[in-house]
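Progress note, project year one: complex with iron/sulfur cluster.
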Amino acid sequence: MIDEDICMVEMTKFFLTFTQAESCGKCIPCRWGTKQMLDILEDITSGKGRPGDIELLEELAESVKDNSLCGLGQTAPNPVLTSIRYFRDEYEAHINEKRCPALACIELTSYHILPDKCQGCGICLRECPTDAISGGKRMVHVIDQSRCIKCGTCLDVCPPRFGAVVKVSGEEVTVPGEPVPVAAIKASAVASSGSSSNE
Ligand code: SF4
Ligand code: SF4
Ligand code: SF4
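Model obtained:
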């Protein structure tokens, strides 16, 4: 079943990887065209998509369909054409906004700890496999993006009552550069709500 957690660009890449591996290589359109399409899809899902990639994919797909000798090459481009037809907006989000709407393309996603939600319990810090999280008791924890391998463990282990870890794509999340006391974040929230209610 296709739901919103499935990235159609990623799925198309998966199908094409399979048919590309099956290509016997006898005719150039199939051998070369499927490889070209796969390279473009790889770029798009890793945040290196460029304007014009969708049109290029369509051109290549039609050419492979029309010029391949057997059924494999003639049908291999179908997932590309169908997904572009029905999910063009997903392609555009990947290429133009560097955003994967399904949060599935690992290179287009990131994890962050929300300072106003973190209670400094330390669970995520203990469970992170790469020591990417720093913090201390009752300190707002912080993720070092350069060490994060995007395994998602912090999101899984942060207690639901805190819900302090978010996974995003194509969004800026404002977080402190280093751990700060939870009390300081709360005090500043109170101060700013007081000053806005006085306005
Ligand atoms: S279209 Fe068929 S014959 Fe041609 S390279 Fe692909 S698999 Fe081989
Ligand atoms: S996603 Fe994984 S590696 Fe990254 S901070 Fe969370 S637990 Fe650590
Ligand atoms: S992000 Fe969640 S698990 Fe990690 S310290 Fe904050 S509240 Fe605890």
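Residues 23-27, 30-31, 68-70, 72-73 surround iron/sulfur cluster (ligand 1) (CB under 6 Å).
Residues 115 and 140 are 6 Å apart (CA to CA).
No further modelling is planned for this target in the current period.
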